[in-house]
Amino acid sequence: MFTLMKAVPQAIQTTYQQIKQQQKTDCLQLRKINNHYYIYKIHNQWNKQTKKPQKTTNIIGKITPDGQYHPKKQKTKTSTTKTYQYGNSELCHQLSKDIKQATKNLPYKNELIALTIIRATHPTPIRLAQTTWNDLHLSRKTQLNLNPKNITNILTTIGTQIEETYNLFTQLTPKGGMLCYDLTSILSYSKKLLLAERGYNPDWDKNNQIKIAMAFSTNTHLPTAIDVFYGSIKETKILKYFVERFPNKDIGFIMDRGFTDYGMLLDFKKRGIHYIAALKKNSVFIPAKISMVGAFVYRKRSVAFSKVVLEGYGFLYLFLDPKLRGVEEDFLLGRVAEGKLSMAEFETSRVLAGVFGLVSDLDVEARVVFEQYKGREEIEQVFDFMKNDLEADKTCLGCDEAVRGYFVVVFLAMRLYFKILKRLREHGLVGKVSVREVLFELSKMRLVVEASGKEYLCALPKKTEEILEVFSDFIKIT
Question: Euclidean distance between the first and final Cα of the chain, in Å?
């Protein structure tokens, strides 16, 4: 009940007025309940449902009959012990040292590293980034604001730093060597993105999409650059822009059969940029009669080869893979059986079955060019990882700059992924243990932090211990 001040004992009135002066507010109320006097604080909050202000009160203390004030005791938590994911985030933290060095001059560098580690360990929606970060032991050392609005600001800022990000790519690219280059398409359902345009993807379906260009080092077996383009731009135009923007010219590019701008190869040769470009079956550079001059073994498969001078371009390398020849001849015979190809056409087409050509300015052994080109298989793994494991195949970000910033984070996360894959390859574990499995098992390696500050690791499952042995030089056991 509300209390009339004239009926309140003088000692209690005096104490009540003193509390109001100390609190510097008039939003206090004195109530008498069962012959005891309590002080309440009044709050006015807007009720969204009734669309009217709503008054709430909270007790803050009690006044005894002799005028003594006793504030309400605050409840304390019964336990302050907390556990954090340790193994997975510590591995990514140690593997990101080169990234930290390369991004030290970029804005939001700490947030960028955090988002990279989150994206690599937990490919979750942006709205869950803060929760994910708080569960990692790294959050104890670096407290960051990773709410969705701030992340959008971070990605937008990074997306505007085009020159700075290309300098970042240069720092992460080894001197010399070849870069596998390829394109992929990412579907977009955002109506606000200018980047999302209708264009053909590898499945020949027209959709609103964004083109993603990727470069992958054959020396380090790591992604070295990424960029985002309008969905309708053709591959050759994107490559020209990519080369112009890339500050490190002491490199070479390996292109797939979709590349057909041979005039660009002449420009590359003039500028001293190395190249290896795959030729289509109907290329004018492939002769009607092919004579192989030798053979080598590649991954337990025998491959025949020839090498001839190609005026103006450098050299034409031709290869014959007997196993591939059998597959292509079987396909051609199937076309004959379906009535889509005559036997005469079959005999003409089978001449090039199992044969593919590469044109390059490199004057090296045929096997070297062949192995360099086959290194493109790893960039296919990069795209597969980007689209599946990182769930980057559908972006709903609201502006072009945020999309560019988002794919910088994806690119950095892919570098962590392929560093882990490289270690698995060194231990002969590829095909037995996946990168995703490594990060999942190491997430079970949890760090317990007690209220006293004492830290220790939980007991580990056998599978986690086995994986930990492979990465023991990166993960510190506390």
Answer: 58
